[in-house]
Specification:
alpha+beta, elongated
Amino acid sequence: MVGLVAAALGAGAAVAFWDTVRTEVMNWLRARNLDKGALLEAVIVLDRVAVGIRRRVVVRTAAVPETVSEETLTLDQIDDPQVRALLEQHDQVNIDFLQDL
């Protein structure tokens, strides 16, 4: 599988995709009382699978990364054109979005 790490995609990114992920991460952190600076890494992992696109949101607050959420999407559900283009070219796309939280 080809992996690609993309920097956080800037101002042109569609709002719904990023707001959903941002909300999931912030809720996960708040539920664990980690919302005051414990987040070290936050990555969206998108994998092309037989039934669509698997989206995992993975955070690292200590030594071990944890999955915040996982769901299967269709390519049409990803409303960010930059992310869609990356998925059309690669089997896996890792997007580091920590700086946009």
